[in-house]
Amino acid sequence: MKNLPRMLSTESKSFLSSKVMLFLLLFLLSVLVSILFSPDIRTGLFEYSILLLIIVLPLIAVKAIKRIHLQKSLISLFVISSAILSLWGIAEYYGIASFQTNPEFGSRVVTAFSNPNHYASFLSATFLPILIYFIWTKNKKVKYLFLVLLCLVFTNILYAGSRGVYISLFFATVVLMFVMFKYTYGLIKSNKYWLTSLLLLFLVIINVYSVPNPLRHHQSVSVADRIASSAEMMRPGTTRDFSIRERVYIWHITLSIIKQAPILGTGLGTYEKNFIRTRDILRTDQDFLNKYPPEVFKNIKNHAHNEFLHLWAESGIFSVLFFVLFAVSVLLLIRKIPLIPSEFDRMFFTAALCSVGMILMQGLVSYPLHILPVALIFWTYTAFFVIKPEEDG
Question: How many CB atoms within 10 Å of residue 34?
Fold first, then answer.
């Protein structure tokens, strides 16, 4: 790890110091410009200061702290927080600790979060780094502890019932294992029994919460049915699932907001106000009323349930463009993984990249970057790829 600042080629350094940082700066600049043309500059600047803080703090941490220390600190934080929340989640699921106040969630757990989808997003963002440390450690006692923790986290992700998280975590894990199999084959081979055991335990857990038995909450939806219904998200126009239909309704209104100011947006922090105004205008259209009856679609939303549409509505097309370019530039760094000599670093950075991709995928149907713990994890992961290697602390 001491040689981490020099572990990339000259081409990699150039890539890091130009494209990724450039697109991040252009993204922040475009959002700022959109605020200056917003009718509510004060609200916009307040929201921008929060956004800037969430992005800048991880950058400072990555620059100031040696990466090996920061990586281990992150994994320790994920282990502790995920363990506490997972035990809390089990207690909540079985009624030992009941903190949930929204009856709409049923048996879905939320723990310290306000929504089960938020809880699932956080756990999924910590899952892959915990998994790579489980693979990396050679201490059998520690492996058993991590095996139990991964099962606890996985069970709580099932408890939360977020289909967007199910889909994104599955693809992220597949990509992670593929890259690790390709570049750290020896490590995967030496852990084949542990990984097989983990997979079998996951299948057992899915089965336990899919068929009637004393361990499964009597009001809970079958996990197998919940996973199968994830396919509904691929065809939102024909689904009968209300949560998906409601998202289509929100996206319909959001696209109408975007049409009002596609270049510069309506201003940070103005989405809820514009949602109400645009919804009321659309309700003068009989076709809209027939498709989305007011007595059914009556909730007021302050998020578009799509990070990219939300950003476009509030900050304009250039903000979305530069954010997408930034995200793609970060994800393309997966091509640089073979240049990292240390197996642990290779695994950690692959897990970070896969987690970034997973959070972005969740952002297509939810708003993980508006959930503070998840947003901090996302920007901490990306900070590893924004700071120039030669500036590593």
Answer: 25
